[in-house]
Input
Amino acid sequence: MTTLAKRSDEGELARSVSVSMLSVAAAGGLFRVFVGLAWAGPVIVVLAAATAAMWLLRRRRRSWQVASGFLAVVVTVIWTVFPSSTVLGVPRPSTLQAVWLALRSIGPSFALSVPPVHPTSGLELLAAGGGGIVTVTALWISSHRSTGIAAIFPSLVVFIAAIPAGRGPGRITVVASYCVGVCIYLFVTSRESEPRLWFADVHGRRRGSRLSSAGATTLAAVAIAAAVTVSLPGVDGVGVLGWRSASGGAGQRIVPNPLVSLQTRLLQESNTPVFQVRSSVASYWQLTTLSTFDGITWSSHGSYSGFTSQLPGVPKASGGVQVDQATFDIQNLDSVWLPDQFNPVSVKGTKGVSYDPKSDSLLVDGSTSNGMTYTVTSYRYLTDLTATDLEAAPSLQSSLTLSADTALPASVPRSVKDLADQITAGSTSEYAKAIAIQNFLTGPSFSYTLNPPTDGSGTSALTTFLFDTRAGYCQQFAAAFAVLAREVGIPTRLGVGFATGNTIPGGFQVLDSDAHTWPEVYFGPHYGWVPFEPTPGFAVPGAGGYDPSSLASAHGPQQTQSPIGPASPLGTVPAGHLKAGASQGSSSNVAQGAPVQTGSGQSHDWGWVVFLVILGALASWCFAVAASRAALRLVRRVRATRQGPRSVALDAWREAEAELVWYGISRSSSETPREFAHRASRLDPLGGLADLAVVADQASFAPVFDSTLARTAAELSQRTRKSLLGAQSRTQRNWRRLGVRPSTLVAATTILRQSRLDWVRKARMRG
Amino acid sequence: MDRQLATTAVLDPFTSVFDAVVSNISTVVRGKEGAIGLALVCLLAEGHLLIEDVPGVGKTTLAKALARSFDLECRRIQFTPDLLPSDITGVSLYNRDSMTFTFRPGPVFANIVIADEINRASPKTQSALLEAMQERQVSLDDVTRPLPDPFMVVATQNPIEYEGTYPLPESQIDRFLMRLSLGYPDKDSEAAMLDAARAMDPLGVAKLAVVADNATIQAMFRIVKSIYSASFVRSYIVELAAATRRHPAVRLGMSPRSTLGMQRAAQALAASLGRAYITPDDVKAVLRPVVEHRLVLDPSLAASGTDVREILDEIERAVPVPAGRDIER
Output
């Protein structure tokens, strides 16, 4: 009855659907990796298409099925991820190019992204294509009648690998939905007889071999997933930078790459207030600067030293120099850096802060600076700088000490150098060259967008930005400026921090979405590092003396911070990061503020959650098993009085029969109970099953049925179960006791169906 | 356990007689309890038996021992090409003294008639016997004479030698309820047989104990007819018959007569096991002896080596047995 001698079409369909549902559930892990749901469409379409393709060819050879599945994956990935590159769905050469570009962007995405990330075409390609491949593989494995259970393997690998990549809430939901998917799949395939198992003897006949097989399969999946996770480009520390804290004295300090956190802040377009500045003078609020470019990302290597109030390595303000004071009230800045103005001299009101003169950055000793208040005094000399001053600054090209600030990795192609030379042709001074590069980048051929076709600031992203797409946000513009300037020998670094923010009485309110990055050029010890602004729509406050774009800019930085709706006359101008946020609408993550956590804190948190989830699942499972058994006993008693002894005896037989399915033996439809009992006698040394078959026969075919036999049948069923269980080892026995028996399910469905039949009969009698 | 759980006390005498007869016969036909039991089932189902086997495996001994156990009259007819119908049915002879014709009954007027090598006689003679088998009477010279009750024909055939034989037509072979083949005894049985034969006549049927009498058999017939057959089992039999009829390799499937016979045989078997009702197991147990000789295969497929047994295996696997769920509805 429960056995399918051959897989029916319905069984086949149920299997296919449950496998693809399992893949969807595994892909659910990506909810915590991506911002928004734009990625889900392609993934679901690709999975559905792969399943449908393999289902349509179910009567053909397996190789055909797999080929059609992969073809469906490729076609639907192109249709869903790169629709614009095709003509009515037919790929063109440009499609290939787009796919190639997307593929190349995957590595840097991993290295530079901190989840949740915006789905770029590369990541979408990876998610949809990978999901499709996993589904096809799982369907292929499950189509082997004998290896059904192993079909969980591919999705399990993906799921486990996706767990550490994700971030934010919804862990339990994701894990639970995957577990539900597994349960559905197991339920669908449990109706098959004698599946062959992985890591077990050939037919899974050895007792308990299913359990050990499941364990070994899971272990292998975990191992592979761990290997996959470790080999991801972003995991080996490229996405974060190592750091030895000189003031702390001991230990390695892991701090997030500021560029990565910048990206997160920008792309989330969060309106979370970060800090307030009490100051009369607008400025960019600098967190740190980055001077090393390794072809993938920008980073800094500094040795920090403690200080009392006067910053080390900075001369005291003398009488003739104008100084500004700004007081910072940190609200929500989960970063190790403290914001300050340009050219700080001294800091007051802080404890546990160190300073790196090389990168001009203040570093908190703890992991967060929330709630701190401090005052930074700085030279106000940016406003006094003029183009003439900088024009006259001595060339520093020969300076050996600055070689680190002009160094470029070998991966930067020659074409960039050619472009830099071409841009700066005719310019003699360092300043003129810098202005030329800035003008090139702010020129009409470049446009501002928060969703650039290629994300990141690595070499490949850079060349794509410069020569192909010419669209990006501050990170691309600043990095491009720095690389171009370094190509012509100008010492350049990246400043990372926040734009001025909204004007409030007495100062400025800075939001998460004000995060910004800009290049700084070195003009010798006298002038120091001077910020430039190649990002369209931005201007360094107070830089009008040397920066023509600052003067040309119709709007000040304060203006850019007000949310600009689509109806605004400035709507077409990329006037700040908020623009994209206003037109796109905010994602659900905005309200979370997505605090950037340090690595160690996250893993601790994660382990605790996993423990709780496992504990909760175990407890609820035990409860469910116990409750279902108790309910079943009750219902069975009721049924015995209502249905009569024959039904009770037949139920007992059916339960014993279902129990044996668990042990790999199921009755075929042409087999009589006695024949089945004979075949199963190997597993049932006490012979209860043979007796039960006799009673079942009597219940089925005898003209009269002795009602005392109903109880006998129930006892025999119990005895059979015990006899089957008794042949197992202690561990296996306990595991089996923990599970819901298939016979329980059979009894439950029988009872349900019977009660429905009763109802129908009564309704007929009434009607 | 079977007996404990499923038997009824009413059937105790039946089963004890049955078992006694089987063990009685197996003292002369050793190691063939299964075939003996089926032969007895055939007798109790009031059917005729066709034994197809090579010479010297105990066909005749089995028939004689069966008769002897119930103290029945047993006659043997050796079928030859020149055998006439009257050699079987008997003739009316003119009695000079009384100036009347008196009937001299032939060998068919016995409880158990052994028709040895039935396929060696001419069709005319065969048909004389076969009519008697179905009608259980002999009509001669406008007088109908009933045959004794019980009446059972045990015909034998040699499956190897077909030279000069008249194979039984389908219509006639259908009248045999069962076809059995004894086969060679296993080594142990044969050795035991030799041991027993050292001093006495190995086929000493005459010395066999009488277990029951004719009245007992009549009572057993009534019991067999009272065995219950549930509608699900009846439809299972019908399904099996239909499956043989629609099987592509079969030209002639089971006849309605054979479905009737199958149920009766199953009833006899169930009674012999002490069960008052038949189950699909009983039907399966008698399926092959009852059906095998009746199926006529498609000649084109028969040439390809398809065996009747394979076809029956296939049919048995294809027809689902009635199980609890159907029964509850």
